[in-house]
Amino acid sequence: MYVCLCKGVTDKTIRQAADDGVTSMRELRALYGVGSQCGSCTSCAREVLSEHLATRQQKFQQLPTLPIAVCYA
Amino acid sequence: MSALLTGSAPVLAELNRVLTRKLTAINQYFLHARMYRNFGFEALNKHAYKASIYEMKHADALIERILLLKGLPNLQELGKLFIGEEPEEMLQLDAKVQLADIQVIRSAIGVCEQAQDYVSRELLSEILEQQEDYLDWLQTQLDLLKQLGQSNYLQSKIHQE
Question: Does the N-terminal or the C-terminal CB of chain B have fewer CB atoms within 10 Å?
Answer without folding.
Answer: N
